[in-house]
Amino acid sequence: MMKSKLFVKSFPVLLVSLSSILGLIGFFIYFKNHDISYNISDLVYAVVKLFIIDSDYSLTHINIFLNVARFLAPLSLATAIIQGVLNLFSSRFNIEKVKRYNDHMIICGDAKSNRLLINDVINTKKGDFIVVKNENNVDANPIKNTIEYQNINTDLLTNIAFYRSRYLFVSFNNDAESLNFAASLLDTINIDQIQKEIDIIILFKNPKWSELSNDLGILRNINEKVSNSRHLNLGYLNYIDKAIRKNMLVCAPDIIRPIEGISDPQIEVGIIGFNMIMQRLIINLALNSHYINNQKLKIYVSHNSSEEFSIFTKEYQLNNILEIVEIDIEELSNEINITAIYICENDELKLMQYMKVLRKSDNLSNVRRFIFIEQSNNITSLLPTEQNHIVDISKEVGIFDNVIDESLDDLAKTIHNDYITKLKETNKLQKDKETHQKWNLLPDEIKDRNRMQADHIDLKLRSLGCEKVNIDSPKEIYDWSNDSRLEALSKAEHNRWMAYMYYKGWKLGDVKDEQKKTHPDLIPYEDLEDYIKQYDRNTIKNIPYLLDVSGYKAVIK
């Protein structure tokens, strides 16, 4: 397809070149056969005249080269002119069409996932879109509404497309380029000219980029560029975490084996493989697996890189959050209390070897298996689906609804706004404190704290044997206030909060220090002062209100 694209673009040039070469050869033979004196300038001049059909040569007097050239020359010139006119008008037509767009999305960058995102937008009819790419990038399959840019074309991208858009996605193969593009764009646009809600979303390929950029203050510097805007929001996402989150909503351990009692036994799972997906899966489990029985999730990890895994667990303080047992796959097959197996492996041969061991195990042969792969392969398509749930990350990364999870953000905003309202009511609001700002002015990490709290509500509902349904459902609303397990849920909420703080690098300290990342409340729930426990209790008691304002209610399953 790439060769075909290049051929179409260069076809007029090839025709002109071929006409010129044939003309030169033909006139050389013609002048020589007729004893006409000439030099190279005479040959060139004669060839040029062919392109304006200025020739009286008849078929009987000229050679085959000249005969072909005199017909091919004007044709090639006409082809070049027509293609140039079509390109000019096509570009102008796209620009005029873009001027009429409103609430559209703009997709910037050369990441492969962008094409998947565009295809999903087209297939799901999410709305109008514009693709912005570097003009040096040759696209074998051009997409409609593509605007080419060199660095940032202020007239085309900002003045025409940006101010009427709804979403602008930035995703390059190089994550550093994504950051640089976003920073340059924010320097280019006029913040005061923005009169409607616009979300700029930087989509990282590697989750480490967003974490390190935040730790080094890069994201904070970029955020400051939009701090004075009431309408412009800046967000940072990575495809892997988004895809894993979506799938863990249906294959979390407590969905496979519900935990609804305070005395229920500890959940144990097995994780096989070692790659980026495996690491992000463990982080997802660390942040979300905090149950009403208040026991750490126990994970048996079978991998091939003990030293690298040790560095990974230390970086995110995972041993403070999970009970981790490193084990080889043969030993894993002897465990009797495994609820689910999560396999993160794209090597087909290794995957087959893992499946063979599991199949031979009396304890694990019937355990549900969730296979996370980076892209489709031949083996996973042949595995029986009743026991093996296949998660192809490559198919998840370009889904619009995965990227724009407005329901989660809406709930997170509600949680934060309720927090701000209570601060105002108690005269505790500090306008210069970063956690006391309006939602669009919050640092992305603070937004994430609210998102994680919102994301854990479904697990808390499952802990009570409940589910959320539309508020107009005929099912009777659950009597939340009279459940004796609410204190246990408050403890689970504290454990969830601690897990997030550990993940972000916080440690126990005598005082809360944002720079040193120390906090005095990183201690067991039982050791907290009662007024601190009340924060967690209020979080639990507030869930029915949060569901109500979101259009839901809790009911017994």
What does this structure look like?
- It contains 22 helices and 16 strands.
- The protein has helices spanning 2-33, 40-51, 64-99, 112-124, 154-162, 175-188, 207-215, 218-224, 239-251, 253-256, 276-288, 306-315, 329-332, 348-360, 393-396, 400-403, 406-425, 444-455, 457-463, 486-503, 530-541, 543-549; strands at residues 104-108, 129-134, 146-149, 165-170, 198-204, 232-238, 268-272, 298-302, 323-326, 338-344, 368-373, 388-392, 466-470, 507-508, 518-519, 552-556.
- The strands form four sheets. It has a six-stranded parallel β-sheet with strand order 3-2-1-4-5-6, sandwiched between helices. A six-stranded parallel β-sheet has the order 9-8-7-10-11-12. It has a two-stranded antiparallel sheet with strand order 13-16.
- Helix 9 crosses helix 11.
